[in-house]
Amino acid sequence: xxxxxxxxxxxxxxxxxxxxxxxxxxxxxxxxxxxxxxxxxxxxxxxxxxxxxxxxxxxxxxxxxxxxxxxxxxxxxxxxxxxxxxxxxxxxxxxxxxxxxxxxxxxxxxxxxxxxxxxxxxxxxxxxxxxxxxxxxxxxxxxxxxxxxxxxxxxxxxxxxxxxxx
Length: 166
Fold this sequence. Notes:
Blueprint: H1 2-28, H2 37-45, H3 56-87, H4 89-102, H5 118-130, E1 140-141, E2 146-147, E3 155-156, E4 161-162
Antiparallel strand pairs: 1-4, 2-3
Helix pairs in contact: 1-3, 3-5
């Protein structure tokens, strides 16, 4: 098991390395910047008088964390949706009927099919409302005091901890 996991991570790291190398070669060749997350990380890695703040291993670890976090939240949402559907047979029947009507006997759902699955979309949205992914629940801290839309009466209080501004 451990060697299989190590092989999978090696393959994943090779994909990350190839993307970083391609981006660095593009920069050297004068290609325009994409101004995405990878560009920002590479800028930080090369800053401070050429001394690398992020080495390749740190970048790999960071990308692995991002990749795993995205996969984990998606699988968690699917698990919660299935658990909720198992508790509500009428909703399960509606989802199954909608899938049978739109997808039929095909085994794969195409991206274009998603627009034709409004009930399934509603189930996923309700699942995310009832069981939001963990990062949305982390407390946040403001950096400055300010006022949000005065019409709703929200005020950000300096250094207040919590999920919602007061």
